[in-house]
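[09:14] KT: can someone run the structure on this one? pasting the chain below
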Amino acid sequence: YIIYSPEQSSLRKFEETTQIYPLGIKGEGLFQFLKELAFEKKNSKTLNAIKNNLSLLDWYENFELPENLMKNEYSLRIKDKYLYPKLQYFDQRSTNEGFLFLLFYLTLFIAKATPVFFAIDNIDVSFNPKLCMQLAKNLSQLAKEYKKQVIITTQNPAILDGLNLKDDSQRLFVVRRNDEGHTKAKRIDYKSERKLKLSEVWTNGFIGGLPENF
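[09:31] RB: done, structure tokens below
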């Protein structure tokens, strides 16, 4: 059982390897695994699915790995649709962290070689509220499609707005510690009479999960 907590520094260092195949808990091994997917024809469907789902970023058009890469070369060519055609592609050192985090999460959910059960800590890092909401929707669908079971923690209310609590496969739990210091988890069920967004329900203190000492 792996708890992934990717870090920007590890995601940018494409030359880093990991003892956990195919992806390390901080994002190590991402490039090596993408390279494996890109140069084996049997993995083309997986790579295309990752590419297509990156369209969640409005500026993204495509990415590719140069065909003439040496074994010790590390480069990912990324296309921004708003750039002039003559600029063509830029590499992973010039992209923003949101792209790298999203690339990592999509690879986790879509690839067959990744675990079928894992957790992601603070998945909202580097994403704006609207993107957080859509990310939660998209990953829920990918989890179903690729038969992954994932536990996600978040501190961003917008993630909750991407959940569909009518769907029993998507479950929301508020985790807290009681007066004795014991950890307690409470499931938040769907209620047809609930009119507020889940983010508002949370920030207004109606379901807990907020500090009570101030």
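[09:33] KT: thanks! The chain has seven helices and seven strands.
[09:34] RB: yep, looked fine to me
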